[in-house]
Amino acid sequence: MVVFAMNKPRLLLVELHHLGDAVMSLPFVRGASEHYEVHILCRPVVAPVFQLLVKPPHIHEWEPPWAEGCEQGGRASLRGACGMGRQLREKKFDVAVCAWADARCGLLMAKTRVSRRVGFPMTHGNYYGADLPWRRKRRWLGHILEWTWNITHPQFPMLTNALHRDSAEQAHMRCWEQIAKTLNISCNTSVPWLKAPTLPGSISALTETPIPRENPILLIHPHARLPSKQWPLARWRELLRKLLISARYSILEIVPPGYEPLGIADNLLVNTPDVATLTATLDAADAVLCHDSFPAHLAAALGKPVITIFGSGEPDWFAPWNNRHRVVQQRVCPLHPCLDRCGMDSYLCLDQISVADVLQQLELLPRIP
């Protein structure tokens, strides 16, 4: 008698935020892949993150109308969400999930006509930075959209499983754990979360000179995409000089596309033009020092100790996995967390972080033989 294997049910994961946010969803994707045929709806720039999984999911690339650089009005965003939802309808998903309190994503999932839709409504406790003036307006607009949909579609609510964060201070990854629990699956946080690509030659081939291996490799990433996350470059240079004098580490500086190196003599540099090269470089390091950024989350996903310099963000929400205790931060701004919209004359949160603060965290790193 021939026994045919049952096809797995299909799950759609909606992740339309940034690279670091995509990394934080990986434990859920890994766990869900054991039970579902996983499909990801994500921005094109984020797709390479999911492609690094040992079992890559099906990826559907889409640039939402509300993304940076193409931000459009509310009606255009709603039309875009509805259109993408209808486009995905033919895939006949069984479950759709999203970890963000975003009614636009809820609308998109509803338009796919998936029978089970799991997510977080735009309540005060679910919405990050809900008390900030510009966030408050967005939350109320989203709440109105959810209310209108649920009133006009009483038999087909926007979310069939409306979840609520256990605590307004919980880490974002806890939201994925709540979704997993609702689906009776588990997030897989065993490191590494993804497979680092094998590049031609050794990591030393990416630098101008070989990396000495008598000391552990400390990888530094001194640049940030947003000014509200950028620790002053003058302090990065001061820190780097002190580290080179101490000779405790072999220092490797990442130079991302479009940026210039710090310009310190005898410093080893590596260019990382894409996600694959960055991942391979991080995998070769013994420890990583960077801002609240994608490299921080990627390094944590590889199981590396990560020291993260936080500015406008909230580390309780977005610290790299298993590295909350290594965050460097000064809670001196009365408007913190402003979530990248500074209301002060200068970035107090970053200006008050000293070189000594960072060196203190480096001293607490476990000794690497």
Structural notes for this entry:
This protein is an alpha/beta fold and 369 residues long. Helices cover 33% and strands 14% of the residues. It has 13 helices and twelve strands.
Task: Name its key features.
13 helices, disordered N terminus, 14% strand, 12 strands, globular, alpha/beta, 369 residues, 6-stranded parallel β-sheet
Mean pLDDT: 93
The main sheet orders its strands as: 3-2-1-4-5-6
Strand pairing plus helix content: what structural class? alpha/beta
Summarize the helix and strand pattern as letters: EHHEHEHEHEHEHEHEEHEHEHEHH
Give the overall shape: globular
End-to-end Cα distance, whole Å, is 58 Å
Helical content stands at 25-40%
Strand residues, percent: 5-15%
Separate helix tally: 13
Q: pLDDT under 50 segments (min length 5)? A: 1-5
Count of individual beta strands: 12
Largest sheet: 6 strands, parallel
Q: What value does the Rg take, in angstroms?
A: 22 Å
In short:
With 369 residues, this protein is of the alpha/beta class. It has 13 helices and 12 strands.
Describe how the helices and strands are arranged.
Blueprint: E1 10-15, H1 19-24, H2 26-32, E2 37-42, H3 47-51, E3 58-61, H4 74-88, E4 95-97, H5 103-111, E5 116-119, H6 133-152, E6 161-162, H7 172-182, E7 217-221, H8 233-246, E8 250-255, E9 268-271, H9 275-284, E10 287-291, H10 294-301, E11 306-309, H11 315-318, E12 327-328, H12 348-351, H13 355-363
Parallel strand pairs: 1-2, 1-4, 2-3, 4-5, 5-6, 7-8, 7-10, 8-9, 10-11, 11-12
Helix pairs in contact: 4-5, 5-6, 8-13
